[in-house]
Amino acid sequence: MAWFQKEDPAPVPPPKSSAAPKALKISSLLSEDVVLFPPAGIDKTAVFEGLVGAVCRDAGLDSALVLPRVLEREKGISTTLDTGLSLPHARVVGLGEIAAGLAVLKTPIPDPAQSGLPIRVVFLFFSPDKREAFPLHLQLLRGVASLFQPALIERLAASTGPADALALVRQSEG
Amino acid sequence: MLSFISFWRASAIVLCDLASTAYYIGGIVEQAVGKSAPWFILAVMLFSYTIRAVYMESCSMFVRGGVYKVVKEAMGGTLAKLSASALMFDYALTGPISAVSAGQYLAGLLNTLFPHFRIGWQVDPGWFSVVFAIAATLYFWWENVKGIHESSDKALKIMQMTTVMAVVMLAWCGLTLWLHPAALPPFTLSFSPEGLGWAKGVGWLKPVGAIGITMAFGHSLLAMSGEESLAQVYREIEAPKMKNLEKTGLVIFLYSLLLTSAVSFFAVMIIPDSIRIHQYGDNLLSGLAMSVVGPHWARVLLQAFVVGVGVVILAGASNTSIVGANGVLNRLAEDGILVDWFRHLHPRFGTTHRLINLIVGLQIATILLCRGDVYMLGEAYAFGVIWSFVFKTLSVMVLRFKNREHREFMVPGNIKAGGVEWPIGLTLIFLVLFATALMNLVTKRIATISGSIFTAAFFAVFLFSEHWNESRHAGAHDLREKFNLRPEDDLAHLRGIPRRARRVLVAVRDPSNLRHLHKALDELDSVKTALIVFTSRIRTGLALVEEAVEMDRDEQVLFTKVLEAAEKHGKTITPMLVVSNEPFYAVVQAAQAVSAAEVVCGVSAKFSSEAQLERLAMTWGSLQTDKQPVRFRIIGQGVEHSEDL
Q: Are B534 and B584 in contact (CB under 8 A)?
């Protein structure tokens, strides 16, 4: 449908992402206490339950209150990516700062919500349920998805334990 | 890419049609009404200001507000088909009269030049102009089949050349009259037998008074043929559309008023009576060039310049007539009047080539029938011009009562009385046009006979075609645009998008949920930003790799709505369709491939805007290879959620 061709205008730089919060160190959100290696044969919900429990213990949250929010969110748009990363999350009222945990699955588990798409790593986090915290929440989603690429996921699956996995994450993050 | 043009370019396109009449109007009108012709041409050019206003009001109601659309909305399909038939007669003659006139000018120049080079040839202007006109029409047929990608550029260049010619010519004529003063043309009417037509034998219809003036006005009316191009070009005008249309209207009015009227006056005042019509009736401006003061060689050079520009602008008018007729027939085809076969897109160029073939076929037949007689063409031509104006003005009047919504522009002269706004200005314009049209029926025999036959034939074709269409498709009108898909291996260098322009990707899916597209178009500065309107076709498994490169019905409906939105706003867009297995991946992959700085989505019926943003963010991260910032916007009714990443 091109009828008339315009001349090329002067180059215009893309906008600076000024409103975006400062880059977040993902590895700084993790400790060995919240890095789990669930056993084989376990399903997605069980992995989430275990990880929610660990993160809640570490952050002083009530898992009975938080777990339903994570599972409710999972009923919406999927949080599992083609790379094998699952990113369950919830925004929690009263939470002061982000709390996160990591589960490494030596044997991938299928995500029933995504036609059995295999999950190999689960990065779960809670963020404050405040309007001003939402940009950071999105930034973290993007950052985690960007960090946990197939190469790192492969190496995590071959890692020997929480300390080794955490070192790999730190190393990849640079 | 669907892009839009400035008011200068729009003016140039319309002027190629409108201003080209300066080359033949003087000769035609003088042959009919005598030496007072320039006064009537001036009157018509002044009156064209009101026609411009009528077209502007119709465009303010309909982006594609040509005669057919407006008449249909106001008075129904039958009269709309009739008016479109009259308009087709106009277009069938615009091309030939322009091309034949160009041939006449060229023949005149050759006959002037041959003796200078001691060549003993003389070309027959009639047959030479027929051959030239057919060659020019075939050239533009091929150009239009290929698509008129750069036609506004060409039109602008043509008008620049014409302006130089007009300045030189007017200055030279001014100098001539300063050195050899001449009286203004008389106001006395002197109708030729052909100019009186069937009124010749009616005693009370003497060529004096109001009736004579109306008769002469009717003979001069084709001076403003080309106004319909204003409606055809409106959809192509960039934002702010109505303001730019107003500017376009003013430019074409002033330009054609100055050029067409001035050269008509100068021709009568400068060219000796003995040779003006006899020798230069079909190439009056050549006669003017050869009659100004100065050495013979300079006048021959001036004639060559005038003819050179004339050939180009008249050829431009021939092209505009093909473009305009194609536009009108496309509207008819979309509305189910013409069978869908005509809307077939050329497999290589994506143009409606069968419609172009039809128009050009008619034009070539007209050229052959007229055998190079510009007067005959001009006489016939007026029929389509006047009746399409009559229908158009009447319809805009009727719509004042049928559709009382606010218009961005209204023809002035409205009086509010009894709670109703009475369109006095429009009524007066209509009455002038209608009286002139009725008078033309009596005085312009060629126009009445040929116009009636042609219009009736086209009307019958439209009726039959519509009936056939309805019987096959149970009356369902197919309002979808036709699209050609062009596969792209690399989206980063999308054709037509300036490489370093800021890029915004708008994801669309539901044709009834395009609020976000309208918002993005509203905010868009087409000069600095490229808007890519994107949809994804979701397929899985083998279907993904075996996908046909053709739009399905839903996609055609969606992109028709997208196209309408872009036309309404007058903003440039690049439509894109991607085959994918997951909608969010498709959006993000496309956005990253085109280096979009902003991604705009509509609110989902199923998910919250937060959930949409979350999924976009994580998909963006999983696919992102650099740290280019991006802004995500989710827009819906009363909702706007924007986040920078």
A: no
Residue B202's pLDDT is 64
Q: Is the CB of A146 less than 8 angstroms away from the CB of B622?
A: yes
CB B502 to CB A20 under 8 A?
no
- Name which of A16, A137, A142 is nearest B621 (Cβ-Cβ): A142
Chain A contact set for B528 (CB, 8 A):
9, 12
First-residue to last-residue Cα distance in chain B: 28
Size of interface A-B (CB pairs under 8 A): 138
| Residue B267 near residue B288, CB atoms below 8 Å | yes
Mutate to test the interface with B, among A22, A69, A77 (most CBs of B within 10 A): A77
Query: Of A122, A124, A125, A120, which is closest to residue A155 (Cα–Cα)?
Result: A120
Using one digit for the tens of pLDDT, what is the confidence trace for B451-463? 888 889 989 988 8
Q: Do B622 and A4 touch (CB under 8 A)?
A: no
pLDDT at A19: 38
Cα–Cα distance measured from residue B415 to residue A3, given in angstroms and rounded to the nearest whole number: 41
| pLDDT value of residue A14 | 39
DSSP string, B318-372: HHHHHHHHHHHHHHHHHTTSS-GGGGPPPTTT-S-HHHHHHHHHHHHHHHHHHTT
Would you state the pLDDT for residue A159? 92
- Determine the pLDDT at residue B442: 84
Per-residue pLDDT at B475 = 47
Interchain CB distance below 8 Å, A141 and B629: no
CATH 1.20.1740.10 maps onto chain B at 9-464
CA nearest B10 in A: which residue? Answer: A4
Contact A12 B4 (CB under 8 A): no
Nearest CB to A138; choose among B500, B607, B614: B614
Neighbours of B142 (CB within 10 A): 11
**Which positions in chain A have a beta carbon within 8 angstroms of at least one beta carbon in chain B?**
1-6, 8-9, 11-20, 73, 76-79, 81-83, 85, 87, 89, 134-135, 137-139, 141-147, 149
Smallest CA–CA distance, residue A61 to chain B, in Å, is 23
Q: Which of B7, B11, B352, B618 to mutate to test the interface with A (most CBs of A within 10 A)?
A: B618
- Residues B3, B8, B9, CA angle at the centre, nearest 5°? 45
pLDDT band at A18; cut points 50, 70, 90: very low
CA distance A119 to chain B (A): 14
**What is the per-residue pLDDT across B167-223, written as a single tens digit (0 to 9) for each?**
999 999 999 999 999 999 998 777 777 777 776 766 555 555 777 788 888 888 888
Cβ distance of A6 and B148 shorter than 8 Å: no
Q: What pLDDT sits at residue B70?
A: 84
In chain A, which residues have their Cβ closer than 8 Å to the Cβ of B151? 3-4
What confidence tens digit (pLDDT) does each residue in A108-159 have? 999 888 778 899 999 999 999 988 889 999 999 999 999 999 999 999 999 9
Which of B220, B256, B190, B213 lies closest to B386, judged by CA? Answer: B220
Reply yes or no on whether the pLDDT at A16 is more than 50.
no
Q: What is the ipTM of this complex?
A: 0.85
For residue B509, the one-letter residue type is: R
Fold classification of B9-464 (topology level): Amino acid/polyamine transporter I (1.20.1740)
What's the pLDDT at B496?
A: 59
User: B144 near B322, Cβ under 8 Å?
Assistant: yes
User: In this structure, are residues B271 and B249 in contact, taking their beta carbons and an 8 Å threshold?
Assistant: no
B451 closest CA partner among B20, B24, B83: B83
Give the DSSP H/E element, type plus range, for residue B495.
none
Residues of chain B with pLDDT under 50: 150, 475-476, 544
Options 1.10.220.30, 3.40.50.1820, 3.30.530.20, 3.40.50.620; CATH for B491-644 is 3.40.50.620
